[in-house]
Design brief:
The chain is α/β, with parallel strands linked by helices. Helices cover 40% and strands 11% of the residues. The chain has helices at residues 3-22, 28-32, 40-48, 68-77, 103-120, 138-142, 147-161, 179-193, 213-216, and strands at residues 55-60, 81-86, 123-126, 165-168, 209-212, 222-223, 231-232. The radius of gyration is 21 Å and the shape is globular.
Length: 250
């Protein structure tokens, strides 16, 4: 057997072993973690990551503001490092399936987000903001949340994760509905603008792109049980200049 034929035989054997792993019977827990272990799926994800590090940070107000389809596409499909920053842990929401409310509900929602991140492959961040319940506008929300402290939390996450792209779920306008949604939409561009401000701490990544959620996905009205009367409506134009991927921010 020549060296070429031995190499071909070894390659066929390796492919057969790798492909057989896809069809092995596995339980639910193993199936959920399949892309994190050995096999064709994990190898494909590693190949998609070979073109360099790509980091995308998604910012929302509550645990149920996450866009799991976007996070999964970024992390599992495109090989990017994705993360979701929820300003709160959902302490002020409703609970129709258990007795937990307030801090207890926040613990439940935190566990749900961490479990979701294990599936979609993204990272999870929070700020110190407490979900006190429904508010009508950003001014009412900032009466409960110290603006500077919350902004420092968001800036810290941006500088720690160092994203190339920041996706804001909300636009920071009254069209966001919930006052906490409006605040999340206002803090995203504010943190983006201060990411390299050395006077407020160590400078972060200078090249970044801020993308409003409505620029990358269709606006679909989604009724929520998180707060009575709360719905995500068409956010309309963002109140800051939008730079689409391919360009660099300020």
């Amino acid at each position: 057997m020549t060296a070429r034929s031995r190499y071909a035989a070894a390659l066929r054997l390796s492919l057969a072993v790798a492909c057989s792993a896809v069809f092995l019977p596995v339980g639910p827990a193993s199936a959920q973690a399949v892309s994190d272990g050995p096999g064709v799926v994990a190898a494909g994800l590693l190949i998609r990551q070979l073109d360099g590090v790509k980091r995308v940070l998604v910012i929302g107000a509550h645990p149920d503001d996450e866009d799991t389809a976007l996070l999964t596409t970024l992390a599992r499909g495109l090989g990017a490092r994705a993360a979701y920053l929820s300003l709160t842990r959902g302490e002020g929401g409703q609970n129709l399936i258990g007795p937990e409310l307030g801090e207890g509900l926040g613990i439940v929602r935190t566990g749900e987000l961490l479990a979701a991140r294990r599936l979609d492959g993204a990272a999870q961040y929070f700020t110190r903001a407490y979900d006190f319940g429904f508010s009508k506008n950003a001014e009412e929300t900032f009466a409960h949340w110290p603006r500077d402290s919350l902004l420092r939390d968001v800036v810290w996450v941006v500088r720690s994760f160092r994203p190339h792209v920041i996706v804001s779920i909300f636009g920071g306008t009254p069209r966001d509905g919930h006052g906490q949604h409006q605040v999340a939409g206002l803090l995203a561009p504010a943190a983006f603008g201060r990411r390299s401000d050395s006077f407020r701490g160590p400078a972060g990544r200078r090249r970044a792109t801020l993308v409003a959620a409505q620029a990358v996905q269709a606006n679909v009205e989604r009724p929520r049980s998180h707060h009575a009367g709360d719905a995500v409506r068409d956010a309309g134009p963002a109140p800051w200049p939008i730079t689409l991927p391919g360009g660099h921010g300020q």
